[in-house]
Specification:
Elements: H1 9-13, H2 20-38, H3 43-46, H4 49-58, E1 65-68, H5 75-83, H6 118-132, E2 138-141, H7 153-156, E3 166-168
Parallel strand pairs: 1-2, 2-3
Helix pairs in contact: 2-4, 2-5
Length: 169
Amino acid sequence: MTLERIKGPADVKALPPEQLQLLADEVRQRLIDVVSHTGGHIGAGLGVVELTVALCAAFDSPRDKIVWDVGHQGYPWKILTGRNDRLHTLRQRGGLSGFLRRDESEHDQFGAGHAGTGLSAAFGMATARDLKGEKYEVVAVVGDGAMTAGSPTRPSTTRATPGAISSSC
């Protein structure tokens, strides 16, 4: 199994491209197996499995900032960022949070809960990066529900340096 060898995004990045779909299939099955016992929002996570694998393969987390707008989209992220061995504790007392938490992993750049604030957070991170003259990518992963929340429109109406933020829906 490919998933057993993954301890973080660097391990995903090291895989040959032809193994990425196999990894995605294993992540999806792991998510189903665990969430069917612990409970939690499974649909959002299932919908971003391939995207999560691609983000790990294309970017360099935690140097690059991957900002998840919806916490329960982050379950596959937890699996691929060193928390797979504790996934069975998801939403359990003393276990992994049902949301993304900065104090849980250096790969969680933003304490995402529900949709609406991730794009603004990523815009702020990109602005801070540019002001400091630093070089790394900032990626916002937003779901369709976020676009009706109001706060995502703020960064889209603010003048930014071209390339300051990468977004993915």
